[in-house]
Specification:
two-stranded antiparallel ribbon; alpha/beta; about 260 residues; Rossmann fold
Length: about 260
């Protein structure tokens, strides 16, 4: 790993976010309308196995994994998040939370039979995402399963279309409606070609379905399943109008086997 690579993690940003995590970071499992995430975890539950949450944040997924696996490990690089996860899981005797840089070659734990990696592969830097994905693969036993949740680029573009339409219905001109969505600039066009959508000013990687599948298989995984995790429109917009119904916004939940 070259010197300065860890700076791409923007640790100070995540330490600051960690202090207000409950308000800043979306709880995907709690907002999964159809219970797809829990159902997928249930499918691989094994009281004799070890599960690892790669990028555990404050530990929401650790609470899901604890009753389903014999041993659970949570890894995250931000100390403020690690401390919150430890407090959240302090009564769960089979859960251990460790600080770890997922961009590094060596992890502080052995290999697991099952893993979760929820909205962690979202950096704008491709090499950083690849480094994290390599760590996830190294952290699994051969044949082990990992469930990876990533933002959907298709959903982001669809939500933007809804936002433009909403503004049209509110009386905005065509130009005003467009500018209220993803701004039509050269930078936006360039970033969208890379799957980057700015969330509160931060360029965040979003994935086309086929792009995610192709990339994960190329990284040494075998495809098991691709599913939509759907959320309410209120997770996208404040007080969305009643005409916003199905189809709903979604993330991609991709289940992989370590080859």
């Amino acid at each position: 790993m070259p010197d300065g690579w860890g700076d791409l993690l923007d640790e100070s940003y995540w330490e600051e976010v960690g202090e207000r995590y409950g308000q800043e970071i979306f709880d995907s499992a709690a907002n999964d309308l159809n219970g797809v995430i829990e159902a997928r975890i249930d499918r691989y539950a094994d009281p004799s196995a070890t599960a690892c949450d790669f990028g555990c944040g404050v530990g929401h997924y650790l609470q899901l994994l604890s009753p389903r696996f014999g041993r659970v490990v949570g890894l995250d690089h931000a100390e403020s998040l690690v401390e919150q996860a430890r407090r959240r899981c302090e009564k769960l005797n089979n859960v251990k939370v460790l600080r770890a840089d997922l961009t590094r070659a060596k992890l502080p734990v052995g290999r697991s039979e099952f893993g979760v990696c929820a909205n962690v592969l979202i950096s704008e830097h491709p090499r950083l995402r690849s480094a994290i994905l390599r760590s996830v693969r190294r952290g699994l036993r051969p044949g082990g399963i990992v469930v990876i949740l990533v933002p959907s680029l298709e959903s982001a573009l669809f939500a933007n279309q809804h936002l433009v339409e909403w503004n049209r219905r509110r009386g905005f001109s065509q130009q005003e409606a467009l500018e209220a969505g993803l701004p039509p600039t050269r930078r936006t066009a360039r970033e969208l070609l890379e799957g980057l959508v700015r969330i509160e000013g931060v360029a965040t990687k979003h994935y086309l379905r086929e792009e995610a599948v192709f990339g994960f298989v190329r990284a040494g995984f075998e495809m098991v399943a691709v599913e939509k995790v759907e959320y309410a429109w209120s997770t996208e917009f404040d007080r969305p109008p009643s005409w916003m119904n199905e189809p709903l916004p979604w993330d991609w939940l991709i289940t992989l086997r370590r080859g």
